[in-house]
Design goal:
Blueprint (H helix, E strand, L loop, with lengths): L2 H21 L11 E3 L5 E3 L7 E6 L4 H16 L4 E6 L4 H11 L5 E4 L4 H6 L6 E5 L5 E5 L7 H8 L3
Parallel strand pairs: 3-4, 4-5
Antiparallel strand pairs: 1-2, 3-6, 6-7
């Protein structure tokens, strides 16, 4: 490679790196197309969220996830028809099944994301992390740890119509 091509390539890489540093990692704006196997054995696709809904990333060994988990029962009671998907992160299926058997399961679908496919597709960066999608597949809420306060997620769900 010629000296000028090398300089040009390094310059372009610097601009891309600088732009990413200013903007940060990508922020999900619309529901990504996905298909994943639930613990039930069913295939779950993005289409189950055609009327809007929730995708929550979770790990039962995450202290913040454990503190937040009871909020989902409250949300389920207020929004019984909203589709809610729990995506497990870095956890084997038997561990999450034991956790749900003990604590209850307010989610419609529980997906074992042991290959991190959904984690990468959604651009998740932490547990807990929750995405709320509208009927037109737009992100209307994106939350990290919300504690014992369901209000942020409830407010986003009320925008679903």
């Amino acid at each position: 490679m010629s000296k000028w091509k090398t300089v040009l390539m390094l310059g372009l890489m610097s601009v891309v790196s600088f732009t990413w540093a200013l903007k940060g990692p990508f922020e999900l704006e619309v529901l990504p197309v996905f298909s994943a196997k639930a613990l039930s054995g069913d295939q779950v696709t993005y289409q189950v969220l055609s009327e809007g809904g929730v995708v929550a990333f979770f790990r039962s060994s995450c202290g913040y996830c454990l503190l937040e988990f009871p909020v989902w029962d409250e949300i389920r009671k207020e929004f019984p028809d909203v589709v809610m998907i729990l995506v497990t992160h870095r956890e084997d299926a038997s561990s999450i099944q034991r956790f749900l058997d003990h604590h209850g399961n307010p989610f419609n679908h529980v997906i074992d994301d042991s290959d991190n496919m959904l984690w990468r597709t959604f651009g998740a960066s932490q547990t807990p992390e929750t995405f709320v999608f509208s009927k037109d597949s737009r992100v209307v809420g994106h939350f990290g740890y919300i504690g014992k306060n369901p209000r942020p997620i409830v407010a986003a769900l009320k925008r679903l119509g």
